[in-house]
Design goal:
31 strands, 5-stranded mixed β-sheet, mainly beta
Length: 378
């Protein structure tokens, strides 16, 4: 019999409105931090990703025209982010593709083709994750018009020659996470009851060491800063200890879900708070808005644009159509908000907001393209 630990913490929503003045000062007279701020942005222009360098501090920010070290590439079908390392899969054919691993710490990349060994086939890549020194990619392969097989490929990229092993899966893979020398696989049992399963493989042997029934409607899987595994549902999330595999549930009261399930990029600060683009629903006129979720307090802070920007800024100066990515410059206490501009052009921008204690607009920079990802590189 399983023992369930339920965390019934009421989740609060805070909808922050920031000062709309550029000249406001902090009331308590404290000196705000200001340190060197170097960002590398991936900017999406008509489906192509290019690197853009920005330099500044807490008060200023400007474009650096030097080469970023990121080679322009099409927007990938699958991504996985581990710190400042971005892993991408690009489809090339019905039975082949390529994987690129880019490290923003030293601006180095490694690219290689995958699935050429399968010959002629039809496969669907489902999820990818980096687990040093491995890359794991889960995929579904058509055997006949009525039968599909499910696999995860473990690829060792540490040497000069790429090697791999395919591991058969029982369930349709929908997500991957890696922690504590273990691969965590979110799967769907389509054959029996449409329930989700968690399968755990030992990364040293590629042998299954654990399986659990997740019930219905598990929608995402990712690793938190403590190395534990978060399984996201619409109205709750569960946290699996990556070492002991014990778990807890955190439930959200009706209408108070943090809505981080569809956010591809989730960034954490040193306290474990998560920064992401949130589905706003009725809380904003914009479908995606910046948000911060505090796992310890079960608290979401939502930054609705109309609460801290004037109508003139929204519609004419910045022309915000929607949020594309959210990050946090902890050294300068700045919320970084990438957005796409409205209109027919492929333009965007980066807003910076003083996150606390008193939220305050801290500047904007226009960009040729919409920010896709943000990396703080200093």
């Amino acid at each position: 019999m399983k023992t369930y630990t339920l965390v019934y913490a009421f989740m609060a929503f805070s909808i922050f409105g920031c000062s709309k003045s550029d000249t406001d000062t902090v009331d308590d007279g404290k000196i705000e931090p200001s340190v060197e701020a170097d960002y590398t942005l991936l900017v999406n222009t008509k489906g192509m990703l290019t690197g853009k360098l920005l330099n500044g501090d807490a008060e200023t920010l400007s474009v650096n025209d030097a080469e970023s070290g990121f080679i322009a590439i099409a927007e990938p079908q699958l991504i996985s982010e581990e710190g400042k390392v971005l892993t991408m899969y690009h489809k090339k054919s019905n039975c082949g593709g390529s994987i690129t691993v880019h490290d923003f710490n030293d601006a180095t990349s490694k690219s290689f083709d995958v699935f050429a060994d399968l010959g002629t086939c039809t496969l669907t890549p489902k999820a990818i994750v980096k687990g040093d020194p491995m890359v794991y990619i889960a995929y579904e392969k058509e055997v006949s018009t009525e039968t599909n097989e499910f696999w995860v490929r473990a690829i060792d990229i540490s040497g000069t020659e790429i090697t791999f092993e395919d591991i058969a899966l029982k369930y349709t893979p929908e997500g991957l996470a890696f922690s504590n020398d273990r691969l965590f696989i979110l799967g769907l049992d389509e054959e029996i009851n449409d329930e989700h399963k968690l399968t755990v493989l030992d990364a040293n042997t590629n042998i299954e060491v654990f399986e659990d029934n997740l019930g219905f409607d598990a929608r995402s899987i990712f690793k938190n800063p403590e190395g534990n595994i978060i399984i996201g549902y619409d109205e709750l999330h569960s946290t699996y200890n990556s070492a002991t595999l014990a778990f807890t549930y955190t439930n959200y009261p009706s209408g108070k879900a943090p809505n981080f399930l569809n956010s591809e990029f989730k960034h954490f600060d040193s306290s474990g708070k998560m920064y992401y683009a949130m589905l706003a629903g009725t809380l904003s006129a914009y479908s995606l808005v910046p948000a911060i979720y505090d796992f310890d307090k079960n608290l979401t802070v939502l930054y609705a644009y109309e609460n801290f920007l004037t109508a003139a800024q929204l519609n004419f100066e910045f022309e915000i159509e929607n949020t594309t990515v959210v990050h946090y410059d902890e050294a300068n206490n700045l919320l970084l908000i990438g957005y796409k501009k409205s209109g027919a052009g492929n333009k965007g921008g980066l807003l910076r907001i003083k996150a606390n204690p008193q939220p305050k607009f801290a500047g904007n920079i226009d960009l040729e393209g919409a920010p896709y990802a943000i990396y703080i590189t200093n």
